[in-house]
Amino acid sequence: MSAVEKAAASDDAIVTIAHVSKFFGPLKALNNVSLSIQPGTVQCIIGPSGSGKSTLLRCINQLEKIDEGAISVDGALIGYRRVGETLHELTDAEIAQQRLSTGMVFQRFNLFNHMTALQNIIEGPLTVLRRPRKEIVAEAMALLERVGLADKRDSYPSELSGGQQQRVAIARALAMRPKLMLFDEPTSALDPELVGEVLNVMRDLAATGMTMIVVTHELGFAREVASDVVFMDKGEIVEQGPPQTVLVAPSQPRTRDFIAAVLK
Ligand SMILES: Nc1ncnc2c1ncn2[C@@H]1O[C@H](COP(=O)(O)OP(=O)(O)OP(=O)(O)O)[C@@H](O)[C@H]1O
Ligand SMILES: [Mg+2]
Known about the structure:
about 260 residues; six-stranded mixed beta sheet; binds adenosine-5'-triphosphate; alpha/beta
């Protein structure tokens, strides 16, 4: 086993990112990123546009392939299987199977527009997990209740506000019973008055012990909910630590400048 793999498989972290680099042509979007996330914690990631935040989430969720390093999720190296001394790339079907343990919520809600809120939520459990309809409808209703939208079960996305659509998107991701939830700027496309309702759902989710990785510019939320904060710039982790340190008294000038710019 390589040192990188050992790091990726070590300790009790639910996500281990070990020396990961990612290129887009000549551009190094991620440069030797290492990060370990413990189960039940909330990892917030902040940083300027183009710093690699989305790319990092997309690599964890295998929407992008990494060029160097290793990532493990829930004890399994992602994208590869080791047979003796060699690593074999997983097939698309195997990757799809691995991706089921991770839920992702995007900036734009990405709901199926021709389906109601309830249909959006049951689609994955029904067609991918092939679970019994009756059971998953009951679960979906409980999820709609949890995100405060029980009365919107039969509404189409076009009939919902942005905040409501995003809450349905969170319920839809949870319906797959993920072990890990990734959020990529889930509130940045919302009108300011709708941000709070989505952050409240995320706060509740964190309180249930869900492991979450959250890219956000909502520094108030990060201060309150994050277990740990990472500041990224130019594909690298510049600073990492508890929210009270990174967000309140950062040690790096780049972090300080970024936070001052966001708070302006
Ligand atoms: N598919 C792609 N092809 C080529 N370059 C890409 C691709 N995806 C991202 N990049 C580049 O990689 C770098 C990191 O992008 P990324 O989307 O991860 O940044 P980000 O921190 O999420 O920024 P933002 O805050 O604007 O969402 C950027 O320079 C971006 O232009
Ligand atoms: Mg992004």
